[in-house]
Design a protein that fits this description.
With 488 residues, this protein is of the alpha/beta class. The chain has 15 helices and 15 strands. Strands 5-4-3-2-1-7-6 form a seven-stranded parallel beta sheet.
């Protein structure tokens, strides 16, 4: 009888649709905004952005080279072209020099894995319209027909998935500066949608169905409303019927007025970092070259973020409920400059020690220390032993004293429920514990006994000797793990 019941239950499970299959989203923002964020994205925290394309050939100014040269006619661009290229030179001719002969997708994948990132977003098509895959809607203006003669997206997505557990995503620019279909729609005040129907939508569908990205990072939307782009209709298909409906996440760039209002996560603007807690999941997309997303050779050393600045930006972002998307711009040959590689590897080494304070963490009730500068907080719950873990990440070492005071931690000793309800957890947490239930350690040197005391709302910590810290390879930022048992 038991065996029959088990078989019957198994049969019922096979014929009954899942909860996800029953959930349908309507093509309107009210419905789409109800979709829960797939958990992998919030847990990942860190991604790598890659801006690579024909603009990597002149490698001057920024990835907006074509627009800045021909439309805006900036003097430095005009001078660059006059001094280096024939008078009749066309932007399209750069594509022949976009050779990518040194591009090794496996090498890239291993670097991104070692950086500590958990996802990658590649520019499938920027505003110049050149695609990094053999788009059936972009004849002779794609990486298979002219330039590398390779399907760049196929190679990189395959390598990422074979060599790592990173999620793979694609950036896609909705508009194209010089596409005649788009220009004509614009001249008709976006009351017709020839560009959307004949160029943009077929490419979007092709990208999703062929490469199965877990992220679709939309851009180039700001000139037209979401209705012109048919954004709500497309996102409803992504959530309901696409082959990546359970894992796909999208950002908020789907037409003017949508930024910071709609999408699985908000970008709001480039290099967005509000510095305070945001209730909706957001992403800080920023560049290691502070002035450009694409590769450029008119760059100086102080234009690059230092490793300390990079890690500090990551910490501040995660503390405020954001993800960090860190951009590199490869060369036309397909190589990533050593200075980019150094920064990414430094971040990876730091995360290999301090990652427990980043991955899967939640913002705490305090994001930074208002008394002691350059200290930022994250937190986790450990249900296995009923403990709350607060991570205090110190971005500036106290060289003068080798001691530090952390002020918000003092609230943990209070028997006040409101002071220990932790952001991002559904269940309220009550406490009836004493200071004796607390422990403090330096991540990466857990065996070292710290001298610490809690006086009022001030947690005073004496760090181990600096030479011991250095010997253990702890640098760039230092993480204290404050554990308090007894929560229920």
């Amino acid at each position: 009888m038991l065996r029959w019941l088990l078989l019957s239950a198994a049969f019922i499970c096979l014929i009954c649709p899942s909860k996800a299959a029953l959930e349908r989203y309507e093509p309107n923002w009210a419905s789409l905004d109800e979709r829960p964020l797939p958990s992998w994205y919030d847990e990942a925290k860190i991604g790598i952005f890659i801006h690579w394309g024909v603009y990597s050939v002149p490698s001057f100014g920024s990835e907006w080279f074509w627009e800045d040269w021909l439309n805006l006619r900036y003097p430095n661009y005009l001078s660059f072209m006059k001094n280096n290229y024939k008078p009749s030179f066309a932007y399209q001719e750069f594509a022949h020099e976009f050779t990518a002969e040194l591009f090794n997708a496996t090498k890239w994948a291993l670097l991104f894995r070692d950086s500590g990132a958990k996802y990658v977003v590649l520019t499938s098509k920027h505003h110049d319209g050149y695609t990094l895959w053999p788009s059936t809607s972009s004849f002779s203006w794609n990486s298979m027909d002219v330039g590398p003669k390779r399907d760049i997206i196929r190679e990189l997505s395959t390598a990422i998935r074979q060599e790592s557990s990173l999620k793979f995503g694609l950036y896609y620019s909705l508009f194209e500066w010089f596409n005649r279909l788009y220009i004509n729609d614009k001249l008709h005040l976006f009351l017709q949608q020839n560009y959307v129907e004949r160029k943009m939508r077929p490419e979007q569908m092709e990208l999703i169905n062929e490469y199965l990205p877990e992220i679709l990072w939309s851009d180039g939307d700001w000139e037209a409303p979401a209705k012109y782009w048919k954004a709500e209709e497309f996102i409803a298909w992504l959530y309901n019927d696409s082959p990546v409906r359970d894992t796909i996440v999208t950002n908020d760039r789907w037409g003017f007025g949508t930024a910071c209002h709609h999408g699985d996560f908000y970008n709001c603007q480039d290099r967005y970092n509000p510095g305070i807690l945001q209730p909706h999941k957001w992403e800080n997309a920023f560049t290691l070259d502070k002035s450009s997303w694409g590769q450029r050779f008119d760059v100086e050393l102080n234009d690059f973020m230092t490793s300390e600045e990079l890690i500090g930006e990551v910490v501040k972002t995660v503390s405020c409920n954001g993800n960090a998307l860190i951009n590199v711009g490869p060369t036309k040959y397909g190589t990533i400059l050593p200075i980019f590689e150094e920064r990414l590897r430094d971040m990876g080494k730091w995360l290999s020690v301090n990652g427990e304070a980043i991955y899967g963490s939640k913002p705490w009730i305090y994001q930074n220390d208002s008394v002691t500068p350059n200290v930022w907080y994250t937190q986790k719950l450990d249900p296995t032993n009923s403990s709350a873990i607060i991570y205090a990440i110190v971005l500036e070492y106290p060289y003068d004293t080798n001691e530090i005071d952390l002020y918000p931690i003092g609230n943990l000793s209070k028997d006040t429920k409101s002071n220990v309800i932790l952001f991002g957890y559904e269940d309220e947490i009550t406490t009836d514990v004493s200071v004796a239930d607390m422990s403090v350690s330096l991540v990466g040197m857990e065996s070292a006994q710290l001298d610490w005391s809690l006086n009022g709302n001030r947690l005073h910590i004496v760090l181990p000797p600096k030479n011991h810290i250095d010997k253990n390879g702890l640098k760039f930022a230092w993480t204290f793990k404050i554990t308090k048992k007894g929560f229920k």
